[in-house]
Structure formats: structure tokens, C-alpha cells
Amino acid sequence: MAVLVQAAPVYNTSCTVKLERRAWHTLTDAEKLAYLSAEQCLMASPATLGLSAARSRFDELQQSHAMSVDVVHNVGAFLPYHRYFIHAHETLLRTVCNYTSPHPYWDEAMDASNFVSSVLLSPTTGFGGDGVGNESCIADGPFKDYVNPVGPGSRVNDHCITRKLGACESVYASRLAGREFVDACMGRERWGEFWPCVEFGAHSAGHGGIGGEMLDLVASPGDPLFYLHHAYLDKVWWEWQSLDPGTRLTEISGSNVPQAFPVPEPFLPGGAAPLPPFPDPDECPGFPGSPPAPPGVLPWEARGAVGDAGNVTTMDHVLTVDGALPDVRVRDVMDIAGGLLCYGYV
Ligand SMILES: [Cu+2]
User: CB atoms < 10 A from the CB of 33, how many?
Assistant: First the structure.
């Protein structure tokens, strides 16, 4: 088993001045450019953690996610892990790259069914647009020349950032970003019903709607859009927690081993937000567009869940970002404005 970083986390004794995370759509051009150049700075900052493939601080987060892939998706720790992962990204932007603002998020409901026209894809004040050519490499924007070391899948192989917004399966997935699908999850009472609903719905919409590297479960943090997508999912979780904080700041459950859960009830026919009809397979042979399983041997040791007495996720479950920040436990990230974390959403 991989050695985990067990240094004690640093707690805020109080959270009075919160970082207020805002939607990308609401930022000024100057604020957008400050964020994009901070991300470029992370990409240009040499790696420090001794991970096998990463060259930059940006790559280190990508590789850490890749090494954790089987303990952070389709499991109870899915949302807590990604909350901490985005916090690590925000912290690195601020401490390594002098970024002074909060982490932005992508309000995906604003772009539902029409990701291709999103302001996030601006070549000048955004993340660049669709992939082009046989390789689907992005061709404009600040990240067009970045070379990712991790991926596709669990391979280590230098490549460009890819996107496939025009693919029919991506167009379909972007429809699932509609607010009605989020609201259907908001109506779930218990954690065990809520998180699979979000993972299946809004989570799949953002990854699938962009396609390419974003649809790569292992290597997706190689596209900087990943961070705005998961900040949005974190906001959705926080909105739900805020509806019943007495229960939802402490309730956690779920398997530590990835489980293929069934389509959540709100998405079934007759549910609160049933899925739109699937595309015609003749016109959309790539649907649902999941990448093939990566061949070959893992370039790093497989990782197991740490911290729980059994196979069920508890508040003691350990979240690691491989030393980018200290390891913490699920209990440390349940409240975004108390203890370890100190931010909010507007
Ligand atoms: Cu992930």
C-alpha cells in the first residue's frame, strides 16, 4: 500500500473571513485573466512531491487523482474527496502562484444543452474551445500548448489536452446539466440517495458534455475545466447540506469499493427528472462515449481505502492528495465554513 502523508492538518480556529467562490460567468475579464494566468503558473512550477510522472505542480494534482481513481469514484467518499481536491488546487494557486481570489466555479445549468457556446470556452478570456483534428487537441486559449504526462487512462504518455464538444454523445450529456436534474437530486433526503444522484447526473453531464480528456475518469484533471466543474458539484453538495445542516454536516455512508449503482430513481421514467431519450445509435455510435479501459499494467501501486474499520465510508475515512496538502479525514471537510475549510458560495 502506498505511504500516505499523515501530518496534522492546520485548522482555522474560527472562520470569520470566508473566501466567497463565485461563478465564472460573473467574473470580470481581469478576474478571469488572473485565474487563467495563475493556472498557467502552476503548470510552469516544477513538481515538488516526488511523484513518478508529474513535472509540474499542476501535474502533481493530476497524478494524485489518477492514483486515487478507484477509491474516489462510485464510492461514499466521492464528494468529500473532490471537495478536498479542489481546496488543494485553490490553496496551491494562492500560495504558489500569488492568486488572491477564491476558486471560481462553472454554473453549468446556465450552459445546459449548449456547452459549445459557453463563455468558459472563450479563446481570450476562457479556457479555449473544442478539440480539433484527428487527435481532438484544443487549438486555442491559454492551455493549447500544455503537454500532460498522465493519461490517457492509467497510462503515462505525453499528450495534448483533448475535448470533443461536437460529438453527439457530448451534446446529449450537456442536456443533463439542466437545473431540473440538480433539483431532482436536491429532493433526496438522505446522503445515500443524494450522492449517487449527483455523481450520475450533474457530474456525468460536465465530464461527458466536454468529452475528450474530461471524460477520462483517471486523467480528467489534466483539463483545467475539471476544477471549475468539480467546484460546481461542491457547491451543489453544499446547497443540499445547507437545507438540513443538523443532519447533513455529519451523515456519511457508502461503499469504499467502487459500486456500479443503478440509474437513480429521479432519472427513471416517471421520476422527477427522467432522462431524455437516448440518441439513435445509428446517428451516435459513440454513445455513451466512455473511453475504453486502459490497457497494460498500472504505472503506480493500486491504492486502497484508509481510515475506516470496514468497507463502509465513515467520518474517519482518510482523504489524500499525496502531500500537496496534508492528509485529512472526511470529518474535516464536511463543513466548508468551519474547522479546516473556510469558504462559501455566491
Ligand atoms: Cu475525480
Answer: 14
C-alpha span between 233 and 229 (Å, rounded): 7
pLDDT for the residue 93: 98
Q: 282: CA distance to ligand 1 center in Å?
A: 31
Calculate how far, in angstroms, residue 65's C-alpha sits from the geometric centre of ligand 1. 7
Dist. CA 253 → ligand 1 center (Å):
18
CA of 280 to the centre of ligand 1 (A): 29
CA 249, CA 166: separation in Å to the nearest integer? 39
Picking from 341, 342, 314, the residue whose alpha carbon sits closest to that of residue 9 is 341
pLDDT at 298: 86
Q: What average pLDDT is seen over the chain? A: 93
Q: Per residue in 34-43, pLDDT tens?
A: 999 999 999 9
The reported pLDDT for the residue numbered 2 is 44
The residues facing 343 across adjacent strands are 19
pLDDT tens-digit readout, 210-219: 999 999 999 9
Helix (H, G, I), strand (E, B) or coil at 31: helix
For residue 85, report the distance from its CA to the centre of ligand 1, in Å.
9
CATH 1.10.1280.10: does it fit domain 19-345?
yes
Q: In this structure, how many other beta carbons lie within 10 angstroms of the beta carbon of residue 202?
A: 25
Q: Are the C-beta atoms of residues 318 and 311 closer than 8 Å to each other?
A: no
Ligand 1: distance of its center to the CA of 10 in Å? 24
Quote the distance between the C-alpha of residue 256 and its chain's center.
18
Centre of ligand 1 from the C-alpha of residue 231, in Å: 12
Q: What is the DSSP string of 55-115?
A: -BHHHHHHHHHHHTHHHHSSSTTHHHHHHHHHHHHHHHHHHHS---SPPPB--GGGGTT-G
Element (H, E) at 342: strand 341-345
Q: How far is CA 291 from the centre of its chain?
A: 17
Positions of the chain with pLDDT lower than 50, given as ranges: 1-3
